UniProtKB/TrEMBL annotation:
It comes from the Bacteria. Gene3D superfamilies: MetI-like (1.10.3720.10). The chain crosses the membrane at residues 30-50, 84-108, 120-140, 146-167, 200-223, 248-274. This is ABC transporter permease.
Length: 286
């Protein structure tokens, strides 16, 4: 059975498709935003209600309003600490992405090098950073550099492993075609392997963004460095020692929001890089 549209119906069809979007988002897109937002608001309201009904003192469990007031009150010191933590996080992520990509390309060019070095990358990944952070802090005189190394150790492996997998996942038929046309190693790498590995690299980058933040926080906990140039981890420790629990929660909120912001930023970068050609991004536009 064939269905035909009149001229007016055909003209109205695109308008109906456009009407399915509001402020640039589909109904599903808005649901993805509003559903978790509603759950979060209900959780905060319930938290505040439990604290008020049971009259829980702030030094045991502050309510969301008390945490918000502490965040406003302590913002001058917390903002400086947040900047310090962000500097270490993004520096570690940049180094991890650069070294991870370069080593992955090296592994893709030589199976012998990959088999020789990859096990050491695995060892580096499975070794708890809490266990080796004190040694790194002792061995490295510059505390900022020591924190950077600790955060890099945590963030490095996902980029290396994902990108290596992507480089080795190039279609074998296309690889044979490149060889048939006598393409050089550089041409195969640039025109086939790297585009194939791009989604894997970006997926590793999304994972490593949060891990770099975790590594920076853990390293700051171990270092315990104070002063004005200290990170959020020290502010959490400081608030705990002084029983300023609302300030501790405020610092934790900043850490959580920073992690969410980093993940969203990495997801946006991934979407912008893949939206015109990769299936994972194209399907969201249908």
């Amino acid at each position: 059975m064939t269905v035909t549209l009149s001229a007016n119906e055909a003209a109205d069809a695109p308008e109906e498709n456009r009407a399915a979007r509001y402020a640039g988002l589909t109904a599903e897109g808005w649901f993805r935003i509003l559903a978790p937002t509603l759950i979060g608001v209900l959780a905060l309201v319930g938290w505040e209600a439990v604290v008020r009904i049971n009259e829980i003192p702030p030094y045991l469990l502050p309510g969301p309003l008390e945490v918000w007031r502490a965040l406003i009150r302590e913002w001058p010191s917390l903002s400086v600490s947040l900047l310090v933590t962000l500097q270490i996080t993004f520096a570690a992520l940049f180094v991890a992405a650069t070294l991870g990509l370069l080593l992955s390309v090296l592994f893709a060019q030589s199976r012998i090098i990959e088999m020789s070095l990859f096990p050491y990358a695995v060892i580096l990944q499975v070794t708890p950073v809490v266990a080796i952070a004190p040694l790194i802090i002792i061995w490295v005189d510059d505390i900022r550099l020591a924190l950077l190394i600790c955060a890099w150790i945590v963030a490095f492996f996902p980029i290396l492993s994902n990108t290596t997998l992507g480089l080795n996942s190039a279609d074998q038929n296309l690889t044979d075609l490149f060889r048939l046309y006598r393409a050089s190693r550089w041409q195969v790498l640039r025109r086939l392997r790297l585009p194939t590995a791009m989604p894997y690299f970006l997926a590793g980058l999304r994972i490593s963004g949060g891990l770099a933040l975790i590594g920076a926080i853990v390293a700051e906990f171990v270092a315990g460095t104070g002063g004005r140039a200290s990170g959020l981890a020290y502010r959490i420790l400081e608030a705990g020692y002084q029983l300023q629990i609302p300030k501790m929660f405020a610092a934790l909120v900043l850490v959580s929001l920073t992690g969410i912001a980093i993940f969203l930023a990495m997801s946006l970068i991934s979407h912008l890089a893949l939206r015109h050609w990769h299936e994972s991004a194209l399907k969201d536009r249908r």
